Amino acid sequence: MSPAVRFVNVSRRFGSVRAVDGVTIDIVEGEFFAMLGPSGSGKTTCLRLIAGFEQPDEGHIEIFGETAEGVPPYRRNVNTVFQDYALFPHMTVGENVAYGLMIKGVGRADREAKARDALAMVKLAGYEERRPAQLSGGQRQRVALSRALVNGPKVLLLDEPLGALDLKLREQMQEELKALQKELGITFVFVTHDQGEALSMANRVAIFNEGKIVQVGSPADVYERPRSRFVADFVGSSNVLSPAFAAGHAGAAKWTSLRPEKIGVVPSGTPVPAAHAHADGEVKTISYQGAVTRLGVAAEDMRIIAELPAGAAPLKEGDSVRLIWPRSAMVTMEDGA
Ligand code: ATP
Fold first, then answer.
1. Does the model's pTM come out above 0.85?
2. Which residue among 147, 170, 188 closes a domain?
3. How far apart, in whole angstroms, are the C-alpha atoms of residue 187 and residue 155?
4. Looking at the predicted structure, is the pLDDT value of residue 248 above 80?
5. What is the tens place of the pLDDT at every residue in 188-245?
6. Among 116, 142, 187, 224, which residue has the least CB neighbours within 10 Å?
7. What pLDDT does 1 receive?
8. Whether residues 10 and 135 fall in one domain
9. For ligand 1, atom 31, which residue shows the shortest CA distance?
10. Which domain holds residue 297?
11. Which residue out of 17, 57, 157 has the highest number of ligand 1 atoms within 8 Å of its CB and is therefore the one to mutate?
């Protein structure tokens, strides 16, 4: 089966900026695929290349096995939900949703019925006559979503669609988007710089840096087995151990990632269990974060971050502690950059 979207060595330059730099990826039909990376790393440009708003300078793009170069956006069976929603303020919700169908020449009764269905999909049945200004931010976002869905796309492109919502609403919409994607079974390609959002929603995540995909895998894969310091730091936070430190603590002489939540903090001198490594150090910083407390511990030449669950025995700056962690929690990486 052809992938929904295939990039083969795709590059897009703007002047001297390589916005997308030699990207090769297959996005499988029916998956929820997240593009995650810092601002300016090329995610939106990739989305625009899929949509047909941009053309590659090099490489090749296929959508369901067909060459995409030269095919205009409206012939691609792909629709985009933009972060700013781009709703027409002078039109009703129903007209906004039906607009694309009207342009395509679909008759009034047919497009009104389709718009109603598309609004029901996003739980906005009965809102047809309102205007965008009479809706909350979350409702506007749903209208934008249903305006894309009404066209029956095989691939839905979402560019930071939850960026403008407050945290609570964001979390609710994350759940709903995930459920909707499951129900519809169409391919979602989702751009975000929020790692929590990418990990919680996607089947697979591509991590972008400077126009390149530096790692791609399931959320658990990229979190548990980061291949570089960039990924270890960007997806959650991690302790990146130098080759020398790792080798001195039962690891390999390689750059190594050790997640803070894998580290236990015990009194100095506590015996170390089998298959564990340890380091002795002094608490330098304590940061209360509600569910956990983060400790910065100076151990030899490293500052190691460990997390204590809420309610753990209180510690203070200057306390001597022993850090212990399972050896299996040390993940070697390909590079320390
Ligand atoms: P963000 O999360 O901020 O949207 P992004 O990862 O989506 O970032 P892109 O928008 O793809 O990044 O931009 C990648 C690079 O290409 C940036 O350096 C950006 O300034 C540049 N760029 C994007 N579009 C254009 C354009 N039309 N003209 C010139 N430079 C552009």
1. yes
2. 147
3. 5
4. yes
5. 999 998 998 999 999 999 999 999 999 999 999 999 999 999 999 898 888 999 999 9
6. 224
7. 77
8. no
9. 14
10. 237-332
11. 17
